[in-house]
Amino acid sequence: FTHACHCKLCQRYTASAFVVHSRIEASNFVVDKGKLVTTVGPSGSGSGHSIKRCEKCGDQIYSHFAALGTDQLIVLKTTTLDNAESFPPLAHIFTKSKLSWVELGTDIPSFDEFYDRRRQGIQHEFCRGRPTIAAGRGRNGREGEHGDDPEVLAG
């Protein structure tokens, strides 16, 4: 399930108006080439999260959130995928803190905070397949853009 999160922490972490991320089962994700390093950061729940970043450029690739209660789910930074266009947000969350100049359409549900998926009737589907990390391609898919930086690819 893919969200666009407008919380203040995501705005700060990404230096952007919001972040797009997808939950994926950790068993369906593999680091093919390159190396990820772990940093630790705060989370809205106060439980914190560990962030896996490209060792070379520091880009966030995915996170484990302690509040999820498991390390079997990761929160993938969806726009790091070569085919990010295939994973549009299915909900906007924490819109109470969205920047005033961001205009949201009415075709995607928006929530002031997080939502209760059971109460809202939202089905969570996890990204499946095997997204992988591979070296040698930049964000636009061209060879050599980031040298040996890991890049997330859809499998």
TL;DR of this structure?
This protein is mainly β. It is built from two helices and ten strands; from the N terminus they run E-H-E-E-E-E-E-E-E-H-E-E.
Describe the structure.
With 155 residues, the protein is mainly β. The protein is 7% helix and 30% strand. It is built from two helices and ten strands. The protein has helices at residues 8-14, 117-120, and strands spanning 2-5, 19-25, 30-31, 36-41, 49-54, 60-65, 73-77, 91-93, 132-135, 150-153. The strands form two sheets. A seven-stranded mixed beta sheet has the order 4-5-6-7-2-1-8. Strands 3-9-10 form a three-stranded mixed beta sheet, with no helix packed on it. Strand 5 and strand 6 form a beta hairpin. The radius of gyration is 15 Å and the shape is globular. The model is unreliable at 126-155 (pLDDT under 50).
Q: Could you give the count of β-strands?
A: 10
Molecular shape: globular
Structural class label: mainly beta
Distance between the termini: 17 Å
Number of helices: 2
Largest sheet: 7 strands, mixed
Name the poorly predicted regions: 126-155
How do the SSEs run, as a string of H and E?
EHEEEEEEEHEE
Residue fraction in strands: 25-35%
* Assembly category: single chain
Helix fraction bin: under 10%
What's the rounded overall pLDDT mean? 74
The radius of gyration over CA amounts to: 15 Å
- Major sheet: arrangement of strands: 4-5-6-7-2-1-8
